[in-house]
């Protein structure tokens, strides 16, 4: 796709300084810009690159004033980083604006879908599925029976959406994600054999939820596994049955959350965090990477370690952890000195 500086300025409500007819067809970092590329300058550390970049167009803040001659055409906006992000979103929308049903696919006769629908080859749509407007389902995706998908949802290639799942507006589900598989529910009988407990609930994703590649969200035993609006899930996360994750919480890769854990809103959870089942984590909690959470957590706590400690306590303790060999030698010297003093008495 090719855009002129003038067209881009129109999208961003910016002002052009330079040639409004110059065109771009790709994006680049400012230090790697080439003819025909679009870049941006937001971090002052990169200011020197605007004088040497070969990028045809550069998005800058309105208060930027060049201190020497530049070759690139500038588009001046209120916030260069925010505007570049907006442009990336616009580019993705244009690039992914596919419509129509490819062949071969399977779509149950009683499945219904809205306007501007795209269904990629080899996809499967089950019975009584309801799909809203502007939904894109890429090749090899599986949508089980009785699934409900609201407007503006994108489901990428190879994702699996099990029966009864409910997906809200503006959600994005990446390749390999599995939503609605059985929870890990077993009970031992008198012979010590583990008997599978039927998982009869579902998964509900509210509006504006993103699910990363390879992430799995299990259906509830009863009721719903609930991912509330605005939640962002990285790749390869495991969310067990009956978990609830509050609004606008973000979780990094390889985190595992055991059954019936409740996580509050606006939390930030780092990579490889482990959270035990049947606990409650409050709002605005920050959990550092590789922490192990085995207790209820109050609002606004910051945690690190396994088992986790308050963030400040962990850092203070770590100073001593790494000095343990030195501390032990000092203790041994003191013991020898004390024993020697006793022997001389």
From TrEMBL:
CDD domains: LbH_LpxD. HAMAP family: LpxD (MF_00523). Belongs to the transferase hexapeptide repeat family. LpxD subfamily. GO terms for cellular component: membrane. It comes from Maribacter luteus. PANTHER family: UDP-3-O-ACYLGLUCOSAMINE N-ACYLTRANSFERASE, UDP-3-O-ACYLGLUCOSAMINE N-ACYLTRANSFERASE 1, MITOCHONDRIAL-RELATED. Its EC number is 2.3.1.191. Transmembrane segments: none annotated. The active site is at residue 241. Pfam families: Hexapep (PF00132), LpxD (PF04613). GO terms for biological process: lipid A biosynthetic process. Catalyzes the N-acylation of UDP-3-O-acylglucosamine using 3-hydroxyacyl-ACP as the acyl donor. Is involved in the biosynthesis of lipid A, a phosphorylated glycolipid that anchors the lipopolysaccharide to the outer membrane of the cell. This is UDP-3-O-acylglucosamine N-acyltransferase. Residues 22-89 form the UDP-3-O-[3-hydroxymyristoyl] glucosamine N-acyltransferase non-repeat region domain. It catalyses: a UDP-3-O-[(3R)-3-hydroxyacyl]-alpha-D-glucosamine + a (3R)-hydroxyacyl-[ACP] = a UDP-2-N,3-O-bis[(3R)-3-hydroxyacyl]-alpha-D-glucosamine + holo-[ACP] + H(+). One of its GO terms (molecular function) is UDP-3-O-[(3R)-3-hydroxyacyl]-glucosamine N-acyltransferase activity. Homotrimer. Keywords: Acyltransferase, Lipid A biosynthesis, Lipid biosynthesis, Lipid metabolism, Repeat, Transferase. InterPro entries: Hexapep, LpxD, Trimer_LpxA-like_sf, UDP_GlcNAc_AcTrfase_non-rep. Pathway: Bacterial outer membrane biogenesis; LPS lipid A biosynthesis.
């Amino acid at each position: 796709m090719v855009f002129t500086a003038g067209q881009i300025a129109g999208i961003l409500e910016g002002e052009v300084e330079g040639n409004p007819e110059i065109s771009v067809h790709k994006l680049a970092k400012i230090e790697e810009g080439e003819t025909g590329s679009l870049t941006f300058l937001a971090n002052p550390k990169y200011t020197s690159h605007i004088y040497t970049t070969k990028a045809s167009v550069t998005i800058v803040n309105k208060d930027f004033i060049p201190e020497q001659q530049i070759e690139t055409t500038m588009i001046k906006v209120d916030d260069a980083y925010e505007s570049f992000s907006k442009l990336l979103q616009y580019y993705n929308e244009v690039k992914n604006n596919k419509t129509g049903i490819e062949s071969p696919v399977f779509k149950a006769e009683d499945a219904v879908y809205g306007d501007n629908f795209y269904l990629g080859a080899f996809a499967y749509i089950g019975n009584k599925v309801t799909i809203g407007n502007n939904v894109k389902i890429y090749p090899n995706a599986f949508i089980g029976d009785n699934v409900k998908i609201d407007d503006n949802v994108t489901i990428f290639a190879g994702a699996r959406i099990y029966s009864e799942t409910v997906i809200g507006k503006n959600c994005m589900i990446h390749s390999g994600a599995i939503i609605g598989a059985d929870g890990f529910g077993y009970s031992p009988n008198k012979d010590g054999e583990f008997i599978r407990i039927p998982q009869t609930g579902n998964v509900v994703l509210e509006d504006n939820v993103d699910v990363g590649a390879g992430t799995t969200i299990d259906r509830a035993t009863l009721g719903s596994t609930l991912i509330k609006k605005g939640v962002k899930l990285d790749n390869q996360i495991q969310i067990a049955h009956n978990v609830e994750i509050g609004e606008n919480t973000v979780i990094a890769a390889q985190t595992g959350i055991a059954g019936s854990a409740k996580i509050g809103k606006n939390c930030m959870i780092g990579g490889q965090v482990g959270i035990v089942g049947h606990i409650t984590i409050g709002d605005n909690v920050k959990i550092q990477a590789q922490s192990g959470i085995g207790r209820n957590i109050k609002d606004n706590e910051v945690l690190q370690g396994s088992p986790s400690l308050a963030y400040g306590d962990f850092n203070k303790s770590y100073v001593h952890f790494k000095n343990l060999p030195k501390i032990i030698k000092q203790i041994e010297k003191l013991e020898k000195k004390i024993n020697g003093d006793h022997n001389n008495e």
